[in-house]
Specification:
With 293 residues, this protein is mainly alpha-helical. It has eleven helices and two strands, in the order ααααββααααααα. A two-stranded antiparallel sheet has the order 1-2. Helix 2 crosses helix 9. The longest helix has 34 residues.
Length: 293
C-alpha cells in the first residue's frame, strides 16, 4: 500500500509539473499559430516574469497580488516591443533568420538579468502558503497543486477564447490563411502583435508560478527547452496538443526521475522527442502542412 501511495504522490507531482509545461508550451503555440515563428526566447521571457515579480514584490515591497499582474504585463510588453520593433520588420525573411533572432533575443535577456540581478539564485516572496494538501492519503505540495489549478484554468480560458472570442477567431483565421484573412478585413499585423503580447504575457505568468516553486536564476530559461519538446510532441499549432503533451511529459519526467534517477529525466524527455520526430514529425495533434526548418 505504501508503494502505491508513493506512486500516486509522484504521479500528482508529475501532473503539476506537466501543467506548468503545458502553460509554457501555450506561449509557443499562440505565437506560432498566428505568425509561423518559433520563438525560442519563450524560456527567457518566462525567466523575466520571475525576475519582474521579484523586483516588484521583494525589491519594491509591493503586494504579491499587485506584483503578479505587473510581472505578466512586463512579459507582455517585451513581446509587444519585440514583435513591433524586430519581428514585423523581418516579414518575408527566411524562417531560419527569424528563428535565429529569437535565439539572440534569449541571450540578450539572460545578459540583462545577470547585469541587473547577478547570477546567484534567488527565492521569491511566498504568496501561496506552505500548508500541505492531501488528496485522500496522498500528499501534494501546496504550490504544485495551486500551479496545476491556475495552469488548467488559463488553458481552459484560452480554449474558450479561441472558439468564441472575435480576436481568437481572427487569430485562427490568420493562422489558416493570411491572404484570406486580409481579404476578410482582419488586421493581420494587429493579430501578430496580439499573439506575441498574449504569448509572452502567458510565459511570464508561468515564470512566476515556476519561480514560486523552485526559485529564480538566470538559467531557469532552460525550462523552455522541455516546453519546446512538449509543443513538438503535441503539435506546434495545437492548444489541445500542448495540454496533452505537457501532462504526458510531466508524468514521464516525474516517473523517470523518481524510479531511474534524476539524470534520466532529460534523457527520457528528449528520447520521446527523437521518437516523435521519426514517426510523426508534425506532432500528435499538429497539421501536416507545418513548414519544416
Amino acid at each position: 500500500m505504501s508503494d502505491l501511495l508513493f506512486f500516486i504522490e509522484v504521479t500528482l507531482a508529475g501532473l503539476g509539473s506537466g501543467a506548468l509545461l503545458s502553460l509554457t508550451a501555450l506561449a509557443f503555440v499562440l505565437i506560432y499559430k498566428a505568425t509561423r515563428v518559433i520563438n525560442l526566447a519563450v524560456g527567457e521571457i518566462l525567466m523575466m516574469g520571475g525576475y519582474f515579480f521579484f523586483a516588484f514584490a521583494a525589491s519594491m515591497s509591493l503586494s504579491p497580488w499587485i506584483a503578479i499582474p505587473l510581472a505578466i504585463a512586463g512579459g507582455a510588453a517585451i513581446g509587444a516591443l519585440v514583435e513591433r520593433g524586430i519581428i514585423r520588420r523581418m516579414l518575408g525573411e527566411s524562417p531560419i533568420s527569424v528563428f535565429m533572432v529569437t535565439v539572440g533575443l534569449g541571450s540578450v535577456l539572460v545578459g540583462i538579468v545577470e547585469l541587473v540581478w547577478g547570477t546567484d539564485p534567488r527565492t521569491l516572496p511566498d504568496f501561496m502558503g506552505t500548508a500541505p494538501i492531501f488528496i485522500g492519503e496522498a500528499y501534494v505540495s501546496r504550490k504544485i497543486a495551486i500551479s496545476f489549478v491556475v495552469a488548467a484554468l488559463v488553458i481552459a480560458v484560452f480554449l474558450l477564447l479561441f472558439r468564441f472570442w472575435r480576436g481568437g477567431v481572427a487569430l485562427r483565421a490568420t493562422a489558416t490563411d493570411q491572404a484570406a484573412a486580409y481579404s476578410c478585413g482582419i488586421n493581420v499585423p494587429g493579430v501578430f502583435s496580439l499573439a506575441w503580447t498574449i504569448g509572452c504575457g502567458t510565459a511570464a505568468g508561468a515564470g512566476v508560478l515556476l519561480g514560486s516553486i523552485g526559485g529564480i536564476a538566470p538559467t531557469m530559461g532552460a525550462f523552455g527547452l522541455s516546453a519546446l519538446v512538449v509543443v513538438i510532441v503535441g503539435g506546434l499549432d495545437s492548444v489541445a496538443g500542448a495540454l496533452v503533451a505537457g501532462l504526458a511529459i510531466g508524468l514521464v519526467e516525474a516517473w523517470a526521475g523518481t524510479y531511474l534517477g534524476g539524470e534520466y529525466k532529460l534523457v527520457s524527455t528528449f528520447g520521446i522527442l527523437i521518437l516523435m520526430l521519426m514517426i510523426r514529425p508534425y506532432g500528435l495533434f499538429g497539421t501536416k502542412e507545418i513548414e519544416r526548418l
